[in-house]
Amino acid sequence: MKKSLWQKYNKQRKFTSVDKSMSTDILIIGAGITGVSVAYNLLNTNHDIILIDKDICFNDTTAKTTGKITYLQDLKYQDIYKACGYEKAKLYYGSQKDAIRLIKKNIKDNEIDCDLEKTEMVTFTKDESKIKDFELEKELLSSFGVKYSTTSNLKDDDVVRQLSVKNAYTFNPIKYLNGLMDKIKDAKNISVYENSIATKIKKEKS
What we know:
- The longest helix has 25 residues, at 86-110.
- By secondary structure, the chain is an alpha/beta fold.
- The strands form 2 sheets. Strands 1-2-6 form a 3-stranded parallel β-sheet, with helices on one face. Strands 3-5-4 form a 3-stranded antiparallel β-sheet.
- Strand 1, helix 1 and strand 2 (49-52) form a beta-alpha-beta unit.
- 33% of the residues lie in helices and 16% in strands.
- Helix 1 (33-41) packs parallel to helix 5 (173-184) and helix 2 (76-84) packs across helix 3.
């Protein structure tokens, strides 16, 4: 099986597997960027937490991403607008900006060397039938206060519409998660298990 560009950076901490029934206040299933981020944000709380992964930590979907940190994601806002309305589209935009700020804060607070680099992010089409969708995306971005451009460093004569923003980033997601996991593994309230599957979950009322 081919490995992604990022997988070679995984520290392979070799956490043990769950081999018995366990109880915890919070169970996090999946140690990708979402699960690890949730665990990190619960550091030093009064909750007992278990984080499990069916394989090894951040070695599946997260390890195969493009490494982009961006709020410009194809034509996501006009998709949400058409399906759920303006407020939901704006709310999603806000969540993406918050996520970028949070990642940058985590990198700074923990002095994580993860090759963070500010870059231009571009979405484009060669399909003229998509022009109306791009026009709607422009209107939505403008209403959110986004400074965008209809030109970019992309050089392709077949492109009929494009949008670009300058305040996006790329990073090495595995180096980033290694930095967070270094904090998690030493936390007194969090236990991490690999090669572990939750076969039955029993919730108890508090």
